[in-house]
Amino acid sequence: MVPMSETFRTVIVGAYGGIGQAVCAMVHQAGGTGFLIGRSIDRLQPLADRYGWPCSVADATDWNQLESAFISADSILGGFHSVIHLAGSVLLKPMHLTSRQEWDATIATNLTSAAGILRSAVPKMFAIGGSIVLVSSAAGSTGLANHEAIAASKGGIEGLVRSAATTYATKGIRVNAVAPGLVQTPLTERVWSNPRSAEVSLSMHPLGRFGTPDDVARAIVWLASPEQSWVTGQILGVDGGLARLKTTTAPKL
User: Fold this and answer.
1) Beta strands 173-180 and 33-38: pairing type?
2) What pTM, to 2 d.p., does this model score?
3) What gap in Å lies between CA 139 and CA 136, rounded to an integer?
4) Does the residue 166 lie in any domain?
5) pLDDT tens across the length of the chain (253 residues)
6) In this structure, are strands 55-57 and 9-13 parallel, antiparallel, or unpaired?
7) At 68, which CATH number?
8) What residues pair up with 33 in beta bridges, in sequence order?
9) Cβ of 103: how many Cβ atoms within 10 Å?
């Protein structure tokens, strides 16, 4: 774990999810301070209390609520060095069975929220620079059946990362993303807890196992750290080889 100064301050959106909790633990362990944002105060407050960190309730798809939360974060923390966006959703349906409501909700939760976070965060980072870390998916760069809505929203995040990284580089603001494979969290439990779907999904990960929240959190905290001051515009695959390696063509060893 790269040590952080106790004055290193990060805003974590979607903090109480499986990966979010792992990120919070690692930021705390490394000596950083967090400001937590999430929709449910009942889930957010206990996590904030655990580390003695401030928090704010906001729906990440609502840009006005996000702006208010980031104003609070900036004021309470006295500025922040990184933003980690972990809000997201999973929809596994072919396009012809996807309703307009489901499509809009997936795009809003994954992509619109990421855009809103950039919009609110970057002006408050102009003075000191820093790092913004978003979350894509292996589905954003490889064809996976029944992932149309997810692939579209996550592919949009990857384009957003590359463009924003270019736009804000002169301000010293780095923008990157991690792109996980299937990670065992409550959000994906319907997939990995079902023996049939788990077998199919597992066969697509060349390293032979699903990811853990810690696997992804380590990469996120690495990108958020000031030690990585020369890394921007990158999509870091943390996916057991899913997006780049083809298990169907690998020889049996």
Assistant:
1) unpaired
2) 0.91
3) 8
4) yes
5) 555 665 789 999 999 999 999 999 999 999 999 999 999 999 999 999 999 999 999 999 999 999 999 999 999 999 999 999 998 888 889 999 999 999 999 999 999 999 999 999 999 999 999 999 999 998 888 888 889 999 999 999 999 999 999 999 999 999 999 999 888 877 766 776 677 777 877 788 888 888 899 999 999 999 999 999 999 999 999 988 888 886 554 444 4
6) unpaired
7) 3.40.50.720
8) 9
9) 17
Q: What token pair was written down for 157?
A: 């995040």
What span, in angstroms and rounded, lies between the C-alpha atoms of 156 and 204?
23
Structure tokens at 222: 């690495």
With respect to residue 251, please indicate whether it lies within any of the assigned structural domains.
no
Contact (CB, 8 A) for 179 and 138: yes
Task: Quote the CA–CA distance of 190 and 201 in Å, as a whole number.
Answer: 12
Q: Which residue has the tokens 């149309």?
A: 148
